[in-house]
Amino acid sequence: MGRTEPTINIQPQAWRKEARAKAAKATASRTIPALLSSDRRARRGVDAAELIVDPPAASSSPSATSSHSTKTKAKDAIPKPPQRPRTSASK
Question: Domain of life here (predicted)?
Fold first, then answer.
């Protein structure tokens, strides 16, 4: 009597981590630049992007000045679903 399926040897965590790091590096250095140069919509996004070299420090006070002319509050950023009309039949 023996095993019906061969034993699966799993590599140690350090080797798997190195393999993931190598794949991530390849994605960042080859795949993404190739995609950005080949896709027209991605190219427009890259051309329209703005690099912010030294952003101002975030302030918790509401009177802090900002480079944006309009401010959106967090509660206004997500639209609320429409309300259902109330019926008096639930009495």
Answer: Eukaryota
